[in-house]
Design brief:
This protein has 256 residues and is an alpha/beta fold. Helix content is 37%, strand content 24%. The mean pLDDT is 87. Keywords: ATP-binding, Cell membrane, Membrane, Nucleotide-binding, Transport.
Length: 256
């Protein structure tokens, strides 16, 4: 099997004359934490939406483990092991933390989410759910109603529910957005921890996070690939500095 878990070939998405993603050739190496960065409007989220099949490409190909998944439906690629964690905390606010993770685990009981499953069969999932909560340092919150959790902890819960679906490739959409310094640090450490044995592709604005944990970085600008490489290579690239201009360029510098 090739060293690349995910590849795009000439991936393009047009919206009524506007090209949001333009001829992108992305290669994500198995076992890496790979970041997709770029100024606002660079096409990062559109690219993510194409990869998870929430949008259909205008042209180009998407390969997962060497298999063409360009025409696959979102549920099909989720079953293959491509799981996305959403930018906006995608958890059930009025269920407990434990119940949220259990819903993710129900995938193992069959292909559908059986909200009406008997309590006994769901309790069989409790041990695994508690283990996942321990992995993301949320054991003490198991019985907390999710709506009452601090924002950073909700994002950790979202990672736990994503892990419950046993992703081979985990897509994280701005995992530290809107967080204070302490939460950013906690979630960064958490991503590093859960990356063992899996591949992570993330869209992230925070350059300190990117510089600290990513093996490879792809920079998009106006929908096209501008640069790719390690953090050191990308952050010293003149075109990247220009694309980020001013304040964001100093952020790139400052994260060294």
């Amino acid at each position: 099997m090739s060293g690349f878990i995910l590849e795009t070939k000439h991936l393009t998405k047009e919206f009524k004359g506007f090209t949001a993603v333009n001829d992108v050739n992305l290669k994500v190496q198995r076992g890496h934490i790979h970041a997709l960065i770029g100024p606002n409007g660079a096409g990062k989220t559109t690219c993510f939406n194409l990869l998870t099949k929430f949008l259909v490409p205008t042209s180009g190909q998407i390969l997962f483990n060497g298999k063409d998944i360009t025409a696959a439906k979102p549920a099909q690629i989720a079953r293959m092991g491509v799981i996305r964690s959403f930018q906006i905390s995608a958890v059930f606010p009025h269920l407990t933390v434990l119940q949220n993770v259990r819903i993710g685990l129900q995938r193992q009981l069959g292909n559908s989410f059986n909200f009406w499953q008997s309590e006994r069969s769901l309790n069989a999932l409790n041990d695994r759910a508690m283990q996942l909560l321990a992995d993301v340092d949320l054991s003490e919150f198991a019985d907390t109603i999710t709506v009452d959790m601090p924002y950073g902890r909700k994002r950790a819960l979202e990672i736990a529910t994503t892990l419950a679906m046993e992703p081979e490739l985990m897509l994280l959409d701005e995992p530290t957005q809107g967080m204070g310094h302490e939460d950013v640090h906690r979630v960064t450490e958490l991503i590093k921890k859960v990356s063992a044995g899996r591949t992570i592709l993330m869209v992230e604005h925070n350059m300190k996070v990117v510089s600290g944990i990513c093996d490879k970085i792809s920079v998009l600008q106006r929908g096209a690939m501008l640069a790719e490489g390690s953090y050191a290579e990308v952050s010293s690239n003149a075109q990247v500095m220009e694309a980020y201009m001013g304040t964001e360029a100093t952020v790139l510098e400052g994260a060294h």
